[in-house]
Amino acid sequence: MTESVIHVEGLGKRYRVGERERYFALRDVLTRAFSAPFKRNGARRSKDYIWALRDVSLDVHQGEVVGLIGRNGAGKTTLLKLLSRITRPTTGFAEIRGRVGSLLEVGTGFHPELTGHENIYLSGAILGMSRVEIDRKMDAIVAFAEVERFLSSPLKFYSTGMQMRLAFAVAAHLEPEILLVDEVLAVGDLEFQKKCLGKMQEVSRSGRTIVFVSHQMGQMRRLCERVIWIDGGQIRDEGPTGKVIAAYESASLSSGETLSGDGHCFLNWSIDGKDNILRDGLREVNFHCQVHLREPLSQGHYGLKIFNDSGVLMVGWGIDNLDTGAGIQEIRLRVPLLPLRPGAYSVICTLFNKGNNLTGGHLLEEWIAQPPLVVDTRPISHPQDRWAGVLNLPAEIQILPE
Amino acid sequence: MNAVTSTALSKPTVPVMRITPPTRWWILPFGELWDFRELVYFFVWRDIKIRYKQTAIGAAWAVLQPLLTMLIFSLFFGRLAHIPSEGLPYPIFYYSALLPWMYFAAALQNATNTIVENQRVITKVYFPRLALPLASVLSGLVDFGVSFAMFVVLMIYYRIHPTAALLWFPVFILLAILTALGVGLWLSALNALYRDVRYVLPFLVQFWLFASPVAYPASLVPQKWRWLYGLNPMAGVIEGVRWSLTGKTSPPGRLIFVSTAAVLVLLASGLAYFQKVETTVADVV
Fold this sequence. Notes:
The structure holds two protein chains of two kinds.
Chain A: E1 4-16, H1 26-35, E2 49-61, E3 65-69, H2 76-83, E4 91-97, E5 100-103, H3 116-127, H4 131-145, H5 160-172, E6 178-181, H6 190-205, E7 209-213, H7 217-223, E8 226-231, E9 234-240, H8 241-256, E10 258-260, E11 266-271, E12 277-278, E13 285-293, E14 297-307, E15 313-324, E16 327-335, E17 343-353, E18 362-368, E19 373-375, H9 385-388
Parallel strand pairs in A: 3-7, 3-8, 5-6, 6-7, 12-19
Antiparallel strand pairs in A: 1-2, 1-4, 8-9, 10-18, 11-13, 13-16, 14-15, 14-17, 17-18, 17-19
Helix pairs in contact in A: 3-4, 3-5, 4-5, 5-6
Chain B: H1 2-10, E1 16-19, H2 30-35, H3 37-54, H4 60-80, H5 90-117, H6 119-122, H7 131-138, H8 140-157, H9 169-193, H10 197-210, H11 226-229, H12 233-246, H13 255-284
């Protein structure tokens, strides 16, 4: 029996509503002080507070890799912030054995005016490394980030991809006994994500403890033995990875992920009837989508939109005048090619009956397709991310003699 | 007995850190701050690097600012208003006071904004927040050093030889740092909660300038009010620096005791208030 390195009991965090969104002006405080005597409801009411986390108890043992899952706003990040001492709990306590490294954001403390070399020192120190330690690890960090040639140029000239690589490289070499990681692996290209996952596996094999948050269930399955599902600020389920993820996925399919509309008509989607991974963007691509129609479709409208991870619309299609019967149907959208840059994309499918959004059609469902689209191709446009754009297209060059 | 010993032996080096709701905010994390001393160094280093990278003439500002102010003061307060300078040439009289004053004013400016400027870091990683105002107060010492070099040039030009009073100079500088830290702690914490503080700051600095013996000697203040005047710690600091550097003016005397007491009160209350705000600062910035 290994000892528990994180012991949490009855942990809770309460925020005042609006406290996180705005700061106060001195003026407001003065106005409140003067107007309070004349106001009956000047006292703080309980509904002015929300519990981001409530009565959470858990134990994490040495060498464990534990995943935290849950919807946005469920309290996963709040839990990491409490464990890393960024914010203090309202109730309960936590006991931590060993040095904690937290990686809640990639590039914490980076400054655009400083060089890559200088930023490694700064970010390393902020994350908790000593100068000697950074000196010793400098070569390894630089090699991991693959930024040797740019080390003495200011960070503002780096592409986003390069900044991400540098940032993760610093954090990956922190070597704390306990590593807390928030959704940071969602960034960067797939090649680099794989490298980071490999590094994390290496860290966990060396006996260190990792607690990490991700929305990508594939990562969870590869890295964790145990998963904790947080819902509405409380632990809803915990246990072996496969079991908890299955429960979570079926719950979010049956309730959560519908934006609007009145039916859960979208069941699943895939590329060419296989999975969510696009492996060749220069060939024909078929989007398969299974829907469950409670009524026949007449003059229906089907839309499919693809957004990148910054929420920018890459492409969208909308097809009108669809007719079909009720029951389970499969919609196939065929496009001759889809040359997107490698990365993760959200796919949003919409289905209207009797018209479209302009002609007063009836919205059946707007669905954020699960799992998201992953484009796993080789980047072939400009080698620097900031000049590569959103398309991944081959080019040939020719210089004609005079 | 045996069980207790073996438990103690099985985890000899790993300390347990207990995370609890905020209590006992008056207990200061000096030990922890010592563990993070390198971070303070890196914050200072970053502030200086960025300041000199972003300005066109870099370190020259540290000389130009007090030099130009000294010229204006010498002209208006000296030549035109004939304010007494206790036997010192006006440039020396004013520059020696502007040295600690400009350091103090810049330190307040930096400290006020430090929590807000570093909010991204504060909300993403833990370190003793005290490191931020501390670093912002210390980073001004580099500019101070640069402008001090200019003062040495002035001293040579006016053929003023330092006396044994110079030995007191580090004491007064320490007092200036502690004053800046005491006020800076208050301002940085207040500005994190109430953003109007940074708009109030220019007025505060201006009033404070006239309440300090920069443009005039403290001897102009009537003897019986001198102790009250000393409640402004910068009064003691400026009189002290002027005296220790030139050896010509009268030593600050009792003024310095009142000022030191005022600094200690400022510092203690500033630390306590900052600690109280620190527990919630990541939730509000």
